[in-house]
Write a structure and sequence with these properties.
The protein is mainly beta and about 90 residues long. It has one helix spanning about 80-90, and strands at about 5-10, 15-20, 30, 55-65, 65-75. A five-stranded mixed β-barrel has the order 1-2-3-5-4. It starts with a strand and ends with a helix.
Length: about 90
């Protein structure tokens, strides 16, 4: 494994809302494509999630505070998986 974390969450209003795993940073995680070592602000590489609106997705990257650095979407749940995930995590 390369040290990157995999997070599962719901895209709502263009924002990634963490479902699993639970962390101390809260449930709203912002995604950026830049690395933590870059001298640019994380907003410079903000990942647009609008194409995943209403879906549960899995993302991978390095979590630091409420930012996921070097973030990429690794999987999108379809209608059935999204419905099941929302039921399990009580997001209805």
């Amino acid at each position: 494994m390369n040290g990157k974390e995999i997070l599962i969450g719901l895209v709502k209003n263009g924002e990634f809302h963490l479902l699993s795993p639970k962390t101390s940073v809260g449930d709203m995680i912002r995604l950026t494509s830049i690395s933590r070592q870059e001298s640019r602000p994380p907003d410079a590489g903000f990942v647009d999630l609008s194409e995943y609106e209403g879906s549960v997705i899995a993302v991978q990257g390095y979590l630091d505070s409420n930012w996921l650095y070097e973030a990429s979407v690794v999987e999108k749940g379809g209608l059935i998986l999204t419905s099941l995930a929302l039921e399990v995590f009580g997001e209805r």
